């Protein structure tokens, strides 16, 4: 969502990914408060789903290396900064994340 107010937030999702309703709701609330919000796909189209058997969680985690997440985060932050620069506005950027916790599984 874009508000062009020169303040961006890179919102990092929990294991349920960017399409989870809680993540989307939080991003929407940030946008309604005047922030430009980007939620990258940290799991490359394969987020954890609540209907998967919990014993498969460890296997799923090993498929999603931290290095991949780091690369996606840096690329997303760079994109946001470049986007602001191309519009001639500030480069204010915050990065936040949250986790709903595995206990919900």
TrEMBL record:
Residues 5-101 form the Dienelactone hydrolase domain. It is found in: Cytoplasm, Cytosol. Pfam families: DLH (PF01738). GO terms for molecular function: hydrolase activity. Keywords: Cytoplasm, Hydrolase. The keyword Isomerase does not apply. It comes from the Eukaryota. Signal peptide: none annotated. Its main location: cytoplasm. GO terms for cellular component: cytosol. Gene3D superfamilies: alpha/beta hydrolase. Transmembrane segments: none annotated. InterPro entries: AB_hydrolase_fold, CMBL, Dienelactn_hydro. The keyword Ribosomal protein does not apply. Belongs to the dienelactone hydrolase family. This is Carboxymethylenebutenolidase homolog. The lineage of its organism: Eukaryota, Viridiplantae, Streptophyta, Embryophyta, Tracheophyta.
């Amino acid at each position: 969502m874009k508000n062009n107010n020169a303040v961006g937030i890179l919102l990092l999702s929990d294991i349920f990914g960017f399409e989870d309703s809680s993540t989307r709701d939080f991003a929407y609330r940030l946008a309604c408060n005047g922030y430009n919000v980007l939620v990258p796909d940290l799991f490359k189209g394969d987020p954890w789903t609540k209907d998967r058997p919990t014993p498969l969680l460890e296997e799923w985690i090993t498929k999603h290396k931290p290095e991949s997440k780091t690369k996606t985060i840096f690329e997303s932050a760079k994109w946001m900064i470049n986007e602001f620069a191309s519009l001639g506005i500030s480069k204010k950027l915050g990065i936040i994340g949250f986790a709903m916790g595995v206990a919900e599984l």
